[in-house]
Every structure is written in structure tokens, then in C-alpha cells.
Amino acid sequence: MITIEVFMRAVDLCATFVFALSGAVAAVNRRLDIFGILVLAFVAGNFGGISRDLLIGAVPPAALTDGRYLLVSVLAGLATFLWYAGIDKLRNPVLLFDAAGLALFAVVGAQKAIEFGLNPIMSALLGMLTGIGGGMMRDVLLTEIPSVLRSDLYAVAALAGASVVVIGDLVGLPYGVSAVSGAVLCFGLRFMAIRHGWHLPIAHLSAHARVKRDASRDREPSP
Q: What number is the average pLDDT over the span 59-63?
């Protein structure tokens, strides 16, 4: 019979591969070389989990002690480098895989935080961080505004999925039930956001404020 630990590790590795794939695609789009592609693949696939493990005291982080995390990241990077044209054609499926990876990371991250004794609120936030951390660091390395700060319900979906796991633990639901429910909710929110353009409210600038903003940008020195 598969134990919770084995199930969580398998889910973690699958999510790592999916996010590593997204990091490698972003690296190819920015014309990085093979080393840069592999670095971005590893960062996107593992930084969220590493951040979570460091914050809860699970050191050294699993991604740095278990060679399988490095292996799946390298495989994702090499696959993207060799077959980028085919992967790029699967842009929409890759977005769905990314949503699935977000859901898996969020529920696994929340459960691991619970096991290390964190309170419910912090466990939910750690689950969210596990899901969004890799993408944030990927964008920072590419000198872009992290997509999680402007993407359609990305962090909100991760937080919702992690919260279901936490609530399930509080009311005594089996982990499998709460994990599946949380993952389905996270994936569903992200899917609907991608499909219908759902997003949180954005501040609207007045015409005068837009003119001042554009003028200040024009005065900025060129890099």
C-alpha cells in the first residue's frame, strides 16, 4: 500500500518536472544558452520547495539531498532545449500542466508545513509559497515583474488549494480527500482564470497620473 510520504514525494516530483518545463521554456524564449536553460529549469522547479523547507526547518532541503529533483529538472531542461518547437506548439497544454503543477505543489506544501507543526494560517501561506516561489525566482532572474503579481488568480488559486488542505486537517478529513479537493479547487480556479481572463481588481490611473508616469519613464536612463 502506498504511504502518504511516498504519495507526497511522487506528487512533488511530478510538479517539479512541470514547473521546470515552464522555466526552461522561458529561458529559451529569452535566448539563454543550454546552461542557462538548465539553471532556470532547476530554479523554477525547486525554489518554492527549497524556500518552504528552509522556513520550516526541514534542512537540508529535499531538493538538495534527493538527486531525483535535480534529475527531473535536467530532463525537463534538455527536453525543452532539444524539442522546443514541439513544446512551444503545446502552449495551451503547458499552461494547463502549469496549473496542475501549481495545484500539486500547493497541497503538498501545506501538508508538509502541517506535519512540521505550523499553525493553520502559516501552513496555508507556506503551501502558497511552495506553488509560486519557483515562478517568482524565475522571473526575477529574467529581470521581469513576477507573473504571480500580475497573472490571473495565480497566487489566489494556490492559497485556496492550500487552505482546503489545512481546513481538512482541522476537521479530521483523511489527507487524500483534502489533498484531492484542494488540488481540484486550485486547478479549477486557475483553469477558469486562463480560459475567461479572471483576475483581481487593478488600480486605474487617471489620465493625469498616466501622463506623469510615462514622463518619468522617459526620463529614466537607458540601460
A: 90
